From TrEMBL:
GO molecular-function terms, A-Z: ATP binding; galactokinase activity; metal ion binding
One Pfam family it belongs to: GHMP_kinases_C
Name of the protein this chain belongs to: Galactokinase
Family under the similarity heading: Belongs to the GHMP kinase family. GalK subfamily.
One Gene Ontology biological process: galactose metabolic process
E.C. no: 2.7.1.6
Domain of life: Bacteria
Gene field: galK
Organism: Nocardioides gansuensis
Amino acid sequence: MTDQQPETSPVATWRAPGRVNLIGEHTDYNDGFTLPFAIAASCTATVRPGGDGLRAGSAQVDGEVAIPLTGLAEAPAVPDWARYVLGAAWLLRDRGVDVPPLEVTVDSDVPSGAGLSSSAAVVCSVVTALDDALGLGLAPDELLALSRAVENDVVGAPTGGMDQLASLRSREGHVLFCDMRDLAAEPVPFDLGGAGLALLVVDSRAPHAHADGEYAARRRGCEAAAAALGVPALRDVVIDDLDAALARLDGVGAEEQRRYTRHIVTEDARVLQTVELLRAGRVREIGPLLTQSHVSMRDDFRITVPEVDTAVEVLLAGGALGARMTGGGFGGCVIGLLEAEAVESAAAQVEEAFAEAGFTPPVAFTVTPGPGAHRVDG
Ligand code: GAF
């Protein structure tokens, strides 16, 4: 995408969603499998060429950020929210695209810090709106690469790419079966209503203490385990070889490398099993896999906190078919697969348990799979 001369069109507005990950956590940066879907909560970005320099505005933040029309290296210190909003324009300029002066404004209702990909919603709405407004005609893999680069290179968060893939490519009524090695994304039907089921999201509202550092530490630990095993990534350890791999790490890797390996290898296998069940229309049977995923995140990967463990326990005790934390962890949201008619009582039970434990009151809502990024007309 170098040396392109964009044709400037007046204004473009695009909407990109947040996501729930049904299963497959922290597998993305291990070249593994994930199964996210877009939710209704989303970010709308409007790109207006004109003015001088690059300007960012957000309906959720007071004040505008304005910087000269320069590359990343010359950019003055700007807050993270504006890096998410202006990062794609910076990167395009760095790559030789003649980005004109422009203003980008965003408005999002994806709760931030809840593990629902609020940042990917911002970035993907901006990238698709920029592509449209500047007439760049970027291919799907270029849109994805640019969105990932904003988070990894401009903001500096070492995330694995699932969130941007989900936000760009999700399809209504489907989960997105993502192979994060070759970035293939296949929509798989996910008909909750047809099965008489609902997916309840409980936002634990637990403070995200040390989430960034812990996330990066998990990534480093997984990469160290793969190196110790002599494979490119933990995805290359198949489930039938797990015991042998753990034995090889015994006495070599730190104890945590064995736990991380067990989580990633079993989680990849659970994603594949979940996909098989969904392809066969056996939605009700995925519950135990969701719960096993939670146990693995709690005991092996150790990324849960008391609030999310409590929500999972209460949902399961109340009859949920399965429940797990979703997203990067250290707080955030839990999902519960429930009989449709059990949603209200389940939410009330979690609220009661949180009050008894002295936790911040949770926020509960149901979700269904929505569309990925799309243009907003008018
Ligand atoms: C966060 C990251 F951004 C994703 O890349 C992924 O690793 C996820 O945590 C955990 O599955 O959302």
